[in-house]
Structures are given as structure tokens and as C-alpha cells.
Amino acid sequence: MPDQRHPEKAHRPDQAQPKKPSWIRVKAPTSEGYKQTRDIMRENRLSTVCEEAGCPNVGECWSQGHATMMIMGEICTRGCTFCNVATGKPNALDVFEPGRVAHAVQKLGLKHVVITSVDRDDLLDGGAEHFAQTIRAIRHRSPSSTIEVLTPDFLKSDSSALEMVVEARPDVFNHNLETVPALYPTVRPGARYFHSLRLLQKVKELDPGMFTKSGIMVGLGEDRSSVLQVMDDMRAADIDFMTIGQYLQPTPKHHRVDRFVTPEEFAGYEKAAFGKGFLMVSATPLTRSSYHAGDDFARLREARMKKLGRA
Questions:
Q1: Which of 11, 179, 231, 247 has the most CB atoms around its CB within 10 Å?
Q2: Which residues cross the membrane (predicted)?
């Protein structure tokens, strides 16, 4: 219930949830692969953003043994108006969690794994060392797996937090801008657009060879020109990979859906982003940060090799 899971939203007026168009609807998950992935997550007492955020692609991804693991608990210290992850005071970190994540990666046989987390503003390093330990544990148990991290912004930590994660050498460093800067006060309160952008730029300064990635949602009230400006900002920060997906409203207490962006508009955004120099772009109504992440990572590496070959 919103008053329990999202206490900061409990007194917000209800926002009408418009009927989803045909291109948004997905089938309920029922496959054996889905059940096997779910069982492995339960056995290892792991959380996934797939479930916590109510991702529409969970059936497809889990049926293929792909899951985005969410470390550092299920309770976030932020209260973003678009997000379905519970808000409140988190529990202490579980020191055994990195090992359990690594075990699940090995058991699922993942070629590419995505690790994300809640925001942990209660920790001095924002959870950076826990990310680093998880990366190292996966490298030990499943050395052939490539690793993508989707991190918080480490807004209340010093620069050493980001350095800890980069030094652990994930293959992809992802941090989502989520929306255009004008909507931050209502969509992403507590975060800062240019801080997040600078975080991604610093990753490249610390390790120029590391792939960087970021994404936004559309349908929150932005216009095309503001989305194109975000693309320019990302390219100025040397971000390699951009994702764009449709915002879906989790409950009536969350930010309203301004409109459903058509597949044709998404195709236009993809074309514009590639034209601005991104190595990889995923822009569809159902695109999420880790949707098809493994296949996209392979294409991302291939695109860089082609670019270096031409150089």
C-alpha cells in the first residue's frame, strides 16, 4: 500500500492512470524459465529491481535467465515520484550479500550481469565499497561474465566513493539521469541533474576505456527539444550508450503519465541519438536500463571496435 511502501507519497492526491496502448501491453510471466530464475533469486535471498520496480519485461527476461540484482536491501533513502521501490530507513548492509550474488550469477550461467541498488544516503560512501565487493566476488566465481553496474549518484559522499567502484573495473558503468533537468524538482527530488552528469564524466576521466551508459524516461511532461538537449549533454560527458523508455505509473500516488510516446517517436529519438555520436542507443516504449543488456553490450563493444578501426 502507498502509505506503507511509500509514506512520502501517502498524502499526495491520486493521479489518474490512463489505459495503456497496445504497444505497451505484455503477457503475464508463466514460463518454466521464469520460475527457475525466480527460485534461484529466492534461494539466495536476493532482491531484483525487476520485481521491486514492477518492470514490464520481467517475464521475458526471467524466462531467459536474466535478472537485474538489486543490492543493499529493498528500502531506498530517496522518494522519487516515479519509482516503485519502497522508501524509508534501510537495514544494515549484509556482508554476505556479494557472495550470494556471485553464486546466483554462476548458477544462472550469466554471460552479462547487471547489478543495481537502492540509494543509501545513510552510508558515508553511499554503498560504493559494497558495489566493489560485489564486482570482485562475481569476478572470482564467474570470471567470464561481463559486469554492468547501475549505481546511485553518491551525492552525499566524497570523490573516493566513485573511485572505489571504478577501481573494481566493471565493464559498464551506468547511472541514469532519468528525466530532463526541468522536471527534477517534481520527478527526482533530492538529486541534481548536473551532479549526475558530472559523475558519468568523471568515470571517463578515471578510466577512459570504461563504457558509460545512462537513460531517461519519456512521457513525464518533457518535450522533444529538452530530450535532444539531454542527448547533447550526455555526449559532452562522453557517454557511450543511451536508453530511452516509456514511463509507466506504478500507483495512483506516483507521478502521472503525461502521455504515451508512440513507437514512431521512439524511432526518431534513436535516429537523433545515433546522429549525435552515441555508440549504442536503445529507444523503445519497453526499453529499460537492463533490458537486453547482454546483447546490447556485445553491440556496444563491436561499435567501439569499428570506430577504432576507422580511426
A1: 179
A2: none
